[in-house]
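During the reporting period the student researcher (J.K.) took over the structure-prediction task from the postdoctoral fellow and processed the backlog of single-chain submissions. One of the processed entries is reproduced below for the supervisory committee.
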Amino acid sequence: MQSSFKLREVRIVKFLNSLFGPREKDGILTISNLITLGGILSGLIYALFYVYGANRWLILSVLFLIGFSDLSDGFLARRLRQSTNFGKIIDPVRDRILLFAIFGHIALLVGFNAQIAVIIFFEGIIIGFDVIGFPRELVWAVHLMGKLRQLIHVLSGGIVIANNLFPEIIFMIYPFTGKISANFLLTTMLISSLLVAVVYSLLQVVNIRTRRID
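J.K. obtained the following structure tokens:
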């Protein structure tokens, strides 16, 4: 009986170490990766919620979960030394699901228009370059630009969504800020996608030329 309990305790400790302890690059089951996977699931739930007209507070709660996933998984991966190849794959997947879910929600609220179509076009270019990859020395710069673009999209898209889902709350802020139009916010998102797509294109051209010279 006692040996069975000790064996169970050892297994629990090993499981917790696998979640919270440092892992090799090929590790999969880590706390940071589970949080990222939770963000992917939350992004899909968010899309289902607004498509089927769920309560607006439920939609907001899921958005907060996605935001927590985005802010915490990278921090924990570095803090716990759990940076894995699997995590590097699923992190941008979560980011793309969130962005396209936001685009879909905005299209549902204000109508699908040319701005949203062009944003999606440029995002497709960016995804293509991400799949191709960048030289190691450019990875951090590319990652920083991607996160900045995502921040602009989430903030701008969040304001558009809040204007429609929580007008009574936003109305209390208008006297201080003035109402920000959906057209302006979508233009901001479009410009950020365009700039990143152009920079990514230039980096790829430079990378190709450098390889030819070498």
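The committee noted the following: Helices lie at 2-20, 31-51, 56-79, 85-110, 114-132, 139-165, 167-177, 182-213.
J.K. will present the remaining backlog at the next meeting.
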